[in-house]
């Protein structure tokens, strides 16, 4: 009789290939890890590459909290053309000569899109409007508006401006940019809004996510590499890297795991999700400070 395969719990940091949806990557990982219990923290558009954080088994309970962390990107914005999707995947809807756009105007436009801003997500996105995905409404030719949402762009830098000629002969500018932003920020919407502000239109032609919270590209593995060797960050290490840490003694560890709401130090007030560790570094739970008590978010111990 063969022993039952028990997949380990942990996070897998994938370097997502272009052309794959986040769901495609999850489906691949289910085969590699030999379990159905796989999820992802925050989607990446099919065109985009880079860091996609997956959770396997118990680590899936971390994902909703990890999805809220800061993200970092490298990308290319093309000024001079707009597309229906705000990126290179969609058909071009307008072309304008962008060769006369000045660097100081680009920098001024970028400055307007930095900090706490209100952003209208792309219409071809996964946001739900009255329970229906925005991209589904767009595909069916429906006229609709997406309300602007608050997002934070901590950093939006232009590293290079390159003259180029689009396939239809339009002189365009390609900007190599980096962005650090809050969860829920659309980089293609930044490209669209920058182009609109400069009067020539814009869209995103390349995007690579280089960081999700504490997890960076240097820790990521391609699907081929993971097929050869499943590299996983153990649950305790993953939680310690991503959340503030609270160590408790054996007695409080037992109480916590049995559902008792422990008194929690005020130092954690407003910290969001906090990882609780018991003796010998055992990861017990994610909690948050609520009126002096630890409100349980997810129990692992």
Automatic annotation (TrEMBL):
Chain ranges of the tRNA pseudouridine synthase II TruB subfamily 2 C-terminal domain: 243-300
Limits of the tRNA pseudouridylate synthase B C-terminal domain: 188-230
Enzyme class at the top of the EC tree: isomerase
Free-text function comment from the UniProt entry: Responsible for synthesis of pseudouridine from uracil-55 in the psi GC loop of transfer RNAs.
GO biological process: mRNA pseudouridine synthesis; tRNA pseudouridine synthesis
Alphabetized UniProt keyword annotations: Isomerase, tRNA processing
Listed PANTHER family: PSEUDOURIDYLATE SYNTHASE TRUB1, TRNA-PSEUDOURIDINE SYNTHASE
Name of protein: tRNA pseudouridine synthase B
Active site: 45 (nucleophile)
EC number: 5.4.99.25
Domain Pseudouridine synthase II N-terminal: 31-187
Family according to the record: Belongs to the pseudouridine synthase TruB family. Type 1 subfamily.
Catalysed reactions, as listed in the record: uridine(55) in tRNA = pseudouridine(55) in tRNA
Pfam families the UniProt entry points to: TruB_C, TruB_C_2, TruB_N
Molecular function, one GO term: tRNA pseudouridine(55) synthase activity
Gene3D superfamilies: Pseudouridine synthase, PUA domain
């Amino acid at each position: 009789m063969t022993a039952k395969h028990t997949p380990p719990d942990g996070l897998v940091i994938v370097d997502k290939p272009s052309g794959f949806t986040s769901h495609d990557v999850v489906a691949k990982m289910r085969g590699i890890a030999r379990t159905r219990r796989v999820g992802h923290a925050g989607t990446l558009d099919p065109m985009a590459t880079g860091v996609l954080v997956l959770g396997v088994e118990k680590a899936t309970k971390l994902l909703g909290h990890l999805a809220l962390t800061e993200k970092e990107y490298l990308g290319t914005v093309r000024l001079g053309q707009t597309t229906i999707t705000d990126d290179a995947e969609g058909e071009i809807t307008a072309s304008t000569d962008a060769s006369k756009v000045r660097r100081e105007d680009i920098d001024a436009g970028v400055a307007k899109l930095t900090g706490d801003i209100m952003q209208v997500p792309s219409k071809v996105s996964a946001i739900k409007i009255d329970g229906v995905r925005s991209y589904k409404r767009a595909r069916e030719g429906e006229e609709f508006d997406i309300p602007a949402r608050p997002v934070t762009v901590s950093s939006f830098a232009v590293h290079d401006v390159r003259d180029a000629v689009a396939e239809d002969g339009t002189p365009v500018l390609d900007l190599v940019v980096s962005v650090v932003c809050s969860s829920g920020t659309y980089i293609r919407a930044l490209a669209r809004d920058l182009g609109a502000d400069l009067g020539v239109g814009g869209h995103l032609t390349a995007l690579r996510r280089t960081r999700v919270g504490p997890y960076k590209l240097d820790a990521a593995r391609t699907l081929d590499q993971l097929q050869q060797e499943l590299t996983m960050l153990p649950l305790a290490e993953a939680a310690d890297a991503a959340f503030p840490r609270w160590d408790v003694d054996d007695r409080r560890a037992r109480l916590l795991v049995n559902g008792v709401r422990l008194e929690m130090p005020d130092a954690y007030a407003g910290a969001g999700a906090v990882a609780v560790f018991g003796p010998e570094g055992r990861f017990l739970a994610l909690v948050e400070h609520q009126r002096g008590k630890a409100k349980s978010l997810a129990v692992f111990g």
